[in-house]
Amino acid sequence: MPRQLHLNAFLMNTGHHEASWRLPESDPYAHVSLEHYVDLARVAERGTFDSLFLADGPQLWSNLAQRPAGALEPLTLLTALATATEHIGLIATASTSYNSPYNLARRFASLDIVSGGRAGWNIVTTAGAEAARNFGLDAEPAHAERYARAAEFLDVALKLWDSWEDDAIVGDKAAGVWGDDAKIHPARHQGTYFSVGGALNVPRSPQGYPLLVQAGSSEDGKHFAARYAEAVFTAQQTIEDARAFYADLKARTAAAGRDPGHLKVLPGIVPVIGSTEAEARALEQTLEDHIVYTHGVERLESLLQLPSGTLELDALLPGELPPEDAIEGAKSRYTLVVELARRERLTVRQLIGRLGGGRGHLTLAGTPEQVADAIETWFTQGAADGFNIMPPVLPSGLDAFVDHVVPILRERGLLRSEYGPRTTLRERYGLPRPANQHVSPELTAV
Amino acid sequence: MPRQLHLNAFLMNTGHHEASWRLPESDPYAHVSLEHYVDLARVAERGTFDSLFLADGPQLWSNLAQRPAGALEPLTLLTALATATEHIGLIATASTSYNSPYNLARRFASLDIVSGGRAGWNIVTTAGAEAARNFGLDAEPAHAERYARAAEFLDVALKLWDSWEDDAIVGDKAAGVWGDDAKIHPARHQGTYFSVGGALNVPRSPQGYPLLVQAGSSEDGKHFAARYAEAVFTAQQTIEDARAFYADLKARTAAAGRDPGHLKVLPGIVPVIGSTEAEARALEQTLEDHIVYTHGVERLESLLQLPSGTLELDALLPGELPPEDAIEGAKSRYTLVVELARRERLTVRQLIGRLGGGRGHLTLAGTPEQVADAIETWFTQGAADGFNIMPPVLPSGLDAFVDHVVPILRERGLLRSEYGPRTTLRERYGLPRPANQHVSPELTAV
Ligand SMILES: Cc1cc2nc3c(=O)[nH]c(=O)nc-3n(C[C@H](O)[C@H](O)[C@H](O)COP(=O)(O)O)c2cc1C
Ligand SMILES: Cc1cc2nc3c(=O)[nH]c(=O)nc-3n(C[C@H](O)[C@H](O)[C@H](O)COP(=O)(O)O)c2cc1C
């Protein structure tokens, strides 16, 4: 069997295109509709995806006029989806900056148990002052500090997830002995950001712990990923950049003493699918026509940390922009956007059109064959272990992908045709179940 | 129609009796089995209960040898149960001492949306040093401080739940206006324990906010309940004590400027049901026979804050015990246990037997008629608005209650025979949907 592609469905409201909610078919309440997400999860499962994924941030984004804002809390929504699906992995975003390790480790272990080992955690450090101000801070913690806290957070969470050995429950009714206290290992963690004394109050879960996913592309982000991540989401505009990123991350993973095969790289793609190329372009155009450009300007100014009113719609970006070093928010996204605009000499209007679909992710507009070809090329030429599929419109874009691209990928032997027996998310991604650090310290993945 | 009884099913592992896990029928993994809880939830729904409830604390209790420890995180489990049920309310315990208001308010709003308005929150301040040490503290915060933080936590949560007006989503596709920013009200809270700037990142939920439940019986606890709670769980051993508690809490609620009918008092009862009284006593005896008394002594010493080794199994409690004032943990439970032992001149062994079933809640052992009679008496004589049903063994004890006691209560016109149309948890308890403080400040419940 040839190497298998991994597919993740990135679900978001009415779709990844910022104007998708304005299409006639779209439900303005989709973002809080369980039914909407149940339908999407089932379509993804029909397409034998490895997993589905929900982004998140603990703040109300932007202003409400522009587009759907707010969302169901991801772990809550994924728990409901766990009961509506059987095989697909369930990856929730949660912030290391604005959670405590004890509560979050417990919640992921609980989802992992309830879903039969299908939980994943997209670990984010959360950029932005709005989030900080919801948690008692005046301003966003510095980028490096956020990643330092994230690393300690993971160390604590791993201690907690390993605090019960797998066979700690004895259940000896005759002797009146329910569990073996020798198999419980309190965290006893005293660090810079956290002090956590006890063992977790839930047994070790089917996967040991959730699949660890990460999406930071800055230096700090890649360093973190190499150490902890099992799957990495990334936004890449060209195959050259994607190959360089891929090679870099695999090398860093090896350098961190891990098997580079145990970290899967998944670039995001926005598939805009038509039965002809012209049809795909027309759909793209329809979406662009629905963009409200004044909103786009505001958001771009915010990303580039420029004063409001700096950008002109039909001009290029200003020649002088701050270096990535000066950005405390999403560093790598900043660089990607600036490079895209410079490389293709895009006006602000054109740049907003390009970002409207995928906020920096690659748009692939074309026929199912063209999309499948691009996927195969990236996959076989060292740019990806799989993809984060970000349909511009939901549910129609996911339907189109599953009905028209998936069969081609299956025909080419790149994607499973059925799930087979139930298994864990980590097994779907071809990863081993992690050993418990208290049982086989030498085998511990991290 | 006569006044209607409210019933809440307090679900816990293999049952409330500490020895229930040792019975042949019990599953030692019940506490982490979704199927076990789905079955229980469906039985409770068959019995047209108003709600079900999960207790919780963010620490691993006691030692593992004694009895099942750890549990699925309640909001996670209740989300899964929301998809398996249609009518029953879902009350999760969460701590104000070890959560941040932004995250917790979001999670309850999300459960409320996903369940169609069936979420409830049992607000606890969490006694004990073990929990404190999982969240960066060396010791448990003082009782009064925990309640002061709880009050501010509620004020912030209420601001967040009201931060979206009900009609903030406009969905005007033609104009490209999704929401009305004038209907968003950032929390802008700066207090002693919390500072929270923004609006919640989820729209106002079907109930406005979850049903607010509380279970503190100390002075601070009752003060808090009078101000915020819509339902109160309580442990009462005699109808006289229960009536005094009921009258006191209703008076306090009126004094706080609220309608005392908008706070429902639900004492806990442990129904031990047999087709004859002798059969019920025999079941009680079987359970007592499975108690491991050395464990009971350890737990009693811990509750009474006595050095290990102080208590003797066949002696009375020591004559000198600290006053409730000196207790920083669960004050009211302490007093209840000491008074029970003194009133009935129980030896330590007898006291442990009595506490084994309900940890201080009233055990009603008898025929279905006897249990129904006691329920009716308490309900009609000013001691209760309903009950927190705590079966000693699960699922059998809940089955017995639903199959044998519920029909009698229905016959007597005290309990609905069917749910009727889907409705919110708050409506089940006969409570109004709270007004949004930003729309009708004069109508706000709290
Ligand atoms: C596909 C993808 C999904 C992401 N989802 C989230 C998210 O849900 N929440 C969040 O705060 N950041 C999210 N990020 C941002 C990353 O976590 C990270 O902050 C960003 O890529 C910038 O990386 P850096 O901080 O290392 O520069 C996402 C990034 C990518 C590529
Ligand atoms: C039926 C019932 C359920 C309770 N559940 C919890 C719980 O899940 N977690 C918790 O920390 N405390 C729980 N408590 C304890 C109360 O929140 C409270 O701490 C206790 O009754 C002592 O009250 P006081 O602190 O006001 O004296 C419960 C109490 C009762 C009566």
Automatic annotation (TrEMBL), chains A, B:
The entry assigns this protein to a family as follows: Belongs to the NtaA/SnaA/DszA monooxygenase family.
Q: Which InterPro entries match?
A: Diverse_substr_monoxygenases, Luciferase-like_dom, Luciferase-like_sf, NTA_MOA
Q: Which UniProt keywords apply?
A: Flavoprotein, FMN, Monooxygenase, Oxidoreductase
Keyword Oxidoreductase (UniProt): yes
**Where is FMN annotated to bind?**
56, 93, 143, 147, 217-218
**PANTHER family assigned to the protein according to its UniProt record, in alphabetical order:** ALKANESULFONATE MONOOXYGENASE-RELATED, C2H2 FINGER DOMAIN TRANSCRIPTION FACTOR (EUROFUNG)-RELATED
An example Gene Ontology molecular-function term: monooxygenase activity
- Quote the Gene3D superfamilies the UniProt record gives: Luciferase-like domain (3.20.20.30)
What name is this protein filed under? LLM class flavin-dependent oxidoreductase
| Taxonomic placement | Bacteria, Bacillati, Actinomycetota, Actinomycetes, Kitasatosporales
Q: Pfam families annotated for this entry?
A: Bac_luciferase
- Luciferase-like domain residues: 28-383
Q: Where is this region: Disordered?
A: 426-446
Top-level taxon in the UniProt lineage: Bacteria
